[in-house]
Amino acid sequence: MFNRKFMEELFKPQELYSKKALRTVYDRLAHASIMRLNQASMDKLYDLMTMAFKHQVLLCPRPKDVLLVTFNHLDAIKGFIQDSPAILHQVEEIFRQLTETYGGLSAGEFQLIRQTLLTFFQDLHIRVSLFLKDKVQNSNGRFVLPVSGPVPWGTEVPGLIRMFDSKGKEVKKVEFKHGGNYVTAPKEGSFELYGDRVLKLGTNMYSVNRPVETHMSGASKNLAPRTQENIAPNPLAKEELNFLARLMGGMEIKKPSGPEPGFRLNLFTTDEEEEQAALTRPEELSYEVINIQATQDQQRNEELARIMGELEVTDQPRQSASKGDDLLAMMDGL
Description:
43% helix, mainly alpha, 12 helices
């Protein structure tokens, strides 16, 4: 990704990449690692990347902060490669090139860069579950602009209008309610190789702990009364489960006293999520559970051997040597 020749081409003055060219570069970068993705997974990963970057550029407090977002990206990469001095040197060299190329640009030039990027992403309104949960994206795919938090560095909290005369002397002040909850920025983010960026845009979006939602949806709650008449377990299904338990080694009647080797199937992400789902599940939807215990004692092995013997098919002796030799003979035999 930080190959010297590739970076040299990237830093040459040029027109903005097309969406097709960007996707091609992204695919090659992703598959340069040991990761292998099918087309559907690659599409989702690309959509997540583009929408995440659009969110970061859109919410930059000031145009120059686009550079801080990029530095946050590089800081995260440096954290992954601390044990690889050669690659770390490559990343730090890119940092120096970024500082040299963009560090001296004016606010107007940064605004042009920011506007060009936003124009590139203008028609992309892909919904991301993480953004929807955090309420930073609406259901139509558009991002929510915050009306609280620190204002851009070097600016004042809104709420005051100053009026000056022709000589530049302040003659009047008018206060107004801005409807937000803004505070003064504590300090400017560092543009040095190592420093506090202050800005959180561009850092790991998944580092924040979020509660797992296991509540039933409205549609599920509405369907619950309709299932009252169907909550009785199907006896045929229960017999099939019992037969499956016998095939796998027998049914567990009593809870074993000691530890038992085996595997545990969990369809939830975490144990906490499973416990929460069990607590919120309506009682009428709870069924009896058949526990399957696959142990290897002699009696059950004999039972399995007997069942397997019943499933064996032996060849029937042929009535004559000529029967079935060809299709006509087979049809005559029928």
